[in-house]
């Protein structure tokens, strides 16, 4: 979601405007406020990610000795109507902002949602409000780091102090890199070794309360809702007719309620065992957390330490590092990406295997719009488009189909579609996961292949999931529902679904193309081993499998509350840093 809202926009122009156009911090451009006393502290907290009041160290520190505080979020309406970010992500964001505004009202404050570009908006607000300090959460991603460095430099030039603190990640990523000799660790095993030698992450800070304000107030005007209210989807140019109710409700309040249910679920599973995978498992869970971690409605540190405390209560010992594999994989991808501006592309990306993918816009469109002719794949893509989320097993299936499995199309194209549609797609994690699933980095067991028919039948044997999302197939007999093109003509007519008319024919012969693609990727890796340039990063080393939790383990826990597998399977004296990765299928 690079470039979305304001947290990832280029701020260099804004910094120049701050330097050239800003009046004294004690003046008001509109004459609506008296110039504050020269020694008074007036802060603006700039929300980007981190849309919460719990574990917000930058805001908490900024409130120390502050006279006034204002919390802002900047939306560019032009960007909203012209970007490729889907309506579900925008709706989730607006719900987050509405929830944040409600929480601030309890502190006799409000959220200031500013329309415009940061380059124009911030200087005007600083002048109007007499701002003396700016606070924000440190951005872990490279574009945000560049933007924030520019804004900090210019703020210092005009006498505005800046407070930036780490709270989107567990650790300060630069510290991990420093401990690894100045380079990001590029295998999870190496990453684990580094963080095992470091102090544990700082604990999550408490919710911002009236006591934390220490007398600081937020000046409000009668026209606040007109100027700074949370916009609607319609105001941002979206058509909402026919939009289905949200499956995921945005906001810190929902995130904290889900965390409580998530931990209760883990405790139950620890006592009674992990449930079997069923088609129902593919649906969104009321205990899922991933979108809330992505938007920062939920602190990763709060999740980390509450999971730790739960383990101690269940096992009565300190947890092994592997317990946190689900959140540490997130940290690993952030660390790998934080100094790599090309992490989301093949070109110029030193850790990405340069696989010669094909270009086929028609094939990409069929995959993205659920027209592949494979019901298992299409039902997943429909769920993604309608709800903004799919299970990790489903992600594996559609990613393998697009890339190394069937269509031989670059992971970059799949990443763009996920960036548009999936609620939890963060720039670093989305790119990292797509490189991993396409065997372009972090993993290269390319002989494991997710068959779009047999794997779907294994997970959804009766076709219940398919019938839910592809109603035209609801009357297709179970024996044919995963490959309806094999049904006799009279069966198709009886089911009122004639393949090629009511539902598309399969776009490829999956058996043939999968074998061709396995040979292709074998050749790529053989050439890598033969012609690796001296002194370059070896993607095969980056991709080398380790006996450690995979990104799948991470997603399983955060999405579906299955991290209890760690509580169930680890012995009380376990000190291993490994967990069992989920099964892969050569041709399941």
Written overview of the protein:
There is one protein chain. With 588 residues, this protein is mainly alpha-helical. The protein contains 26 helices and five strands. The chain has a five-stranded parallel beta sheet, with helices on both faces. The longest helix has 22 residues. It is globular. The C terminus is likely disordered. Keywords: FAD, Flavoprotein. It comes from Parnassius apollo. Its cofactor is FAD. GO terms for molecular function: DNA binding; FAD binding.
SSE diagram, text form:
Blueprint lengths: L11 H10 L20 E5 L10 H7 L4 E8 L1 H6 L4 H19 L5 E5 L2 H12 L3 E5 L4 H16 L3 E5 L7 H7 L8 H9 L13 H4 L10 H5 L23 H21 L17 H5 L5 H16 L9 H13 L23 H8 L6 H13 L4 H14 L5 H11 L5 H11 L16 H6 L4 H6 L19 H6 L15 H22 L7 H5 L7 H10 L3 H6 L19
Parallel strand pairs: 1-2, 1-4, 2-3, 4-5
Cofactor: FAD
InterPro entries: Cryptochr/Photolyase_FAD-bd, Cryptochrome/DNA_photolyase_1, DNA_photolyase_N
Pfam families: DNA_photolyase (PF00875), FAD_binding_7 (PF03441)
Question: Which keywords apply here?
Answer:
5 strands
H/I helix tally: 26
Main β sheet profile: 5 strands, parallel
Our measurement of the CA-to-CA distance between the termini, rounded to an integer number of angstroms, reads 33 Å
Which of globular, elongated, flat, extended, rod-shaped describes the shape? Answer: globular
Could you list the spans in which at least 5 consecutive residues all have pLDDT below 50? Answer: 6-36, 543-549, 552-557, 561-587
How much helix is in the residues? 40-55%
Mean pLDDT score: 85
Q: Going across the major beta sheet, what is the strand order?
A: 3-2-1-4-5
Determine the structural class based on helices, strands and strand pairing.
Answer: mainly alpha
Rg for CA atoms: 25 Å
Work out the strand percent.
under 5%
Question: How many strand units?
Answer: 5
Organism: Parnassius apollo
Domain Photolyase/cryptochrome alpha/beta: 41-170
Cofactor: FAD
GO biological process, one term: circadian regulation of gene expression
């Amino acid at each position: 979601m690079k470039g979305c809202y304001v947290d990832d926009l280029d701020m260099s122009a804004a910094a120049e405007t701050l330097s050239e156009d800003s009046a004294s911090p004690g003046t008001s451009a509109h004459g609506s406020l008296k110039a504050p006393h020269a020694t008074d502290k007036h802060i603006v907290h700039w929300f980007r990610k981190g849309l919460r009041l719990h574990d917000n160290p930058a805001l908490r520190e900024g409130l120390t000795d502050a006279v006034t505080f204002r919390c802002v979020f900047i939306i560019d309406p032009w960007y909203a109507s012209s970007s490729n970010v889907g309506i579900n992500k925008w709706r989730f964001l607006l719900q987050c902002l509405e929830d944040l505004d409600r929480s601030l009202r309890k502190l006799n404050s409000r959220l200031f949602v500013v329309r415009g570009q940061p380059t124009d908006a911030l200087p005007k607000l600083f002048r109007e409000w007499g701002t003396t300090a700016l606070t924000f959460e440190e951005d872990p991603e490279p574009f945000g780091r560049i933007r924030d460095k520019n804004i900090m430099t210019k703020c210092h030039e005009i006498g505005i102090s800046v407070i930036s603190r780490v709270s989107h990640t567990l650790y300060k990523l630069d510290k991990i890199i420093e401990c690894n000799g100045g380079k990001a660790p590029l295998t999870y095993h190496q990453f684990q070794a580094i963080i095992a030698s470091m102090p544990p992450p700082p604990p999550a800070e408490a919710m911002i309360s009236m006591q934390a304000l220490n007398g600081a107030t937020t000046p409000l005007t009668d026209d606040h809702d007109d100027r700074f209210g949370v916009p609607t989807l319609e105001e941002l140019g979206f058509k909402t007719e026919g939009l289905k109710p949200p499956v995921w409700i945005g906001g810190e309040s929902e995130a904290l309620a889900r965390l409580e249910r998530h931990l209760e679920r883990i405790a139950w599973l620890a006592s009674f065992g992990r449930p079997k995978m069923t088609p129902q498992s593919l649906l969104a869970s009321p205990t899922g957390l991933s979108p809330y971690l992505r938007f920062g409605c939920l602190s990763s540190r709060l999740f980390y330490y509450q999971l730790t405390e739960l383990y101690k209560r269940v096992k009565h010992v300190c947890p092994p590092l592997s317990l946190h594999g689900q959140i540490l994989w997130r940290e690993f991808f952030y660390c790998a990406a934080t100094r790599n501006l090309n992490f989301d592309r093949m070109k110029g990306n030193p850790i990405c295997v340069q696989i010669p993918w094909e270009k086929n816009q028609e094939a990409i469109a069929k995959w993205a719009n659920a027209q592949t002719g494979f019901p298992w794949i299409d039902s997943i893509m429909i769920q993604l488009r309608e709800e903004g989320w799919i299970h990790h097993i489903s992600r594996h299936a559609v990613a393998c189909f697009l890339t190394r499995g069937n269509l031989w199309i670059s992971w970059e194209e799949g990443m763009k579609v996920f960036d548009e549609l999936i609620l939890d797609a963060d720039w670093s994690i989305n790119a990292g996961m797509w490189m991993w699933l396409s065997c372009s980095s972090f993993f290269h067991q390319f002989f494991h292949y997710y068959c779009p028919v047999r794997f779907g039948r294994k997970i959804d044997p009766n076709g219940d999931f398919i019938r839910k999302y592809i109603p035209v197939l609801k009357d297709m007999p179970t024996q044919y529902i995963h490959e309806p093109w094999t049904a006799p003509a009279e069966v198709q007519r009886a089911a009122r679904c004639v393949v090629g008319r009511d539902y598309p024919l399969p776009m490829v012969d999956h058996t043939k193309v999968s074998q061709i693609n396995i040979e292709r990727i074998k050749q790529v890796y053989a050439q890598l081993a033969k012609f690796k340039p001296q002194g370059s990063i070896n993607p095969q080393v980056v991709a080398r499998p380790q006996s450690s939790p995979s990104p799948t383990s991470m997603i399983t826990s955060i999405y579906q509350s299955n991290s209890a597998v760690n509580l169930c399977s680890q012995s009380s004296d376990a000190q291993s840093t490994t967990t069992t990765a989920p099964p892969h299928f050569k041709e399941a």
